[in-house]
Amino acid sequence: MRKKIVAGNWKMNLNYEEAKLLLNTLINSAKSGNTNAEIIVCPPAIYLAAFSDILKSQSAVKLGAQNCFHQDSGAYTGEISPSQLKSLGVNYCIIGHSERREQFNESYDLLAKKAKALLKHQIQPIFCCGEQLEVRSNNVYKEFIMKQIEDSLFTLKAEEIAQVIIAYEPIWAIGTGKTATAVQAQEVHGLIRARIAKQFGDKTAADINLIYGGSCKSDNAKELFSQTDIDGGLIGGASLDAAEFSHISNSF
Ligand code: 13P
Does residue 18 lie within any of the structural domains? Predict the structure, then answer.
């Protein structure tokens, strides 16, 4: 049985007091809500240690990072390792977000290393993929997305890739208010699951979590999450509003 997942990617938003307030509000609504989804918050890295302390005494909200490096330790100024994340009780880590691919030139090879490094420390990677508008307009998005997944994740073993959460985030839908339709999102999610089945077998494909991101809000989450191959969402802007995020979490 796959999990249902709603993860909030706060990106580089909120000062510390604002972030703590939002976290505490989310914990309270997650405790009183009736969602059966795994609720994950991915705050800026600088807040992870404090959040880890706050989250220790409950299980309604889980902690995720927005990025990591692939080495365990060493002379990598400014970077954060999976083993350091693990020492804080971080359960998830986003890798390969389009903002990092585009602005920090993250390559398929680097993301393969990050995925392996996280899995070594039992942290579940939330691996992002998705095409630019031009790629969709040229009708080559299927090949584009499959290459992103194949080149970064297909050197994993079946039991390893089963622990990866793949987030399909079409770049033209991120922060634009132009969400993919449920039909468009389901098409890609279905193709990803079929490709995983071909490479790793039916059981792995049935177990792997595929989530959608890109202008996912309370008014479209229900329709998106009801699609056969969509197991939840990776939420940007709407995750900064506690009521909106809770509404999305209750959309299954
Ligand atoms: P928005 O929900 O703001 O479109 O962002 C999606 C996203 O990038 C999540 O990682």
Answer: no
Place of tokens 């002379």: 75
Note if 97 is an active site residue. yes
Cβ 180 under 6 angstroms from ligand 1: no
Find where tokens 């998106």 sit: 224
Picking from 23-37, 73-87, 106-120, 144-158, which range would have the lowest pLDDT averaged per residue?
A: 23-37
pLDDT of 35:
80
For the chain, how many structural domains are there in total?
Answer: 1
Q: Do residues 190 and 210 make contact, with C-beta atoms less than 8 angstroms apart?
A: no
- Which one of the listed residues 97, 106, 131, 189 is annotated catalytic? 97
The burial of 82, by beta-carbon neighbours within 10 Å (0-12 exposed, 13-18 middle, 19 or more buried), is given as buried
- Over residues 199-228, the pLDDT tens digits come to 999 999 999 999 999 999 999 999 999 999
Domain span at residue 109 reads 66-238
